[in-house]
Amino acid sequence: MTLHLHILQPCLVQILKRKIYHLLKNHLSISFVR
Questions:
Q1: What does the chain look like in DSSP terms, one character per residue?
Q2: What is the number of domains present in the chain?
Q3: What is the pLDDT of residues 1-34, one digit of tens each?
Q4: pTM higher than 0.70 for the full model?
Q5: Which letter, b or e, does each residue of 7-29 get, where b requires 16 or more Cβ atoms within 10 Å of its Cβ?
Q6: CA dist 6 → 1, 2, 3 (Å)
Q7: 34 vs 13, 17, 21, CA distance in Å?
Q8: pLDDT of res. 34
């Protein structure tokens, strides 16, 4: 179980980073448009 989590964590981190990046990008573009 721990090993499984250890293998999965990097993938989750990547997904989270991507989501945060997209959210920030959208927020910034909306702010700039205003």
A1: -HHHHHHHHHHHHHHHHHHHHHHHHHHHHHHHH-
A2: 1
A3: 577 777 788 888 999 999 999 999 998 887 776 6
A4: no
A5: eeeeeeeeeeeeeeeeeeeeeee
A6: 9, 6, 5
A7: 32, 26, 20
A8: 63
Cα distance between residue 33 and residue 28, in whole Å? 9
Tokens, residue 26: 């959208």
Hunting for tokens 């910034």 — which residue is that? 28
Distance CA 20, CA 26 (A): 10
Domain span at residue 31 reads: 1-34
pLDDT of residue 24: 93
At 10, list the tokens: 């990097």
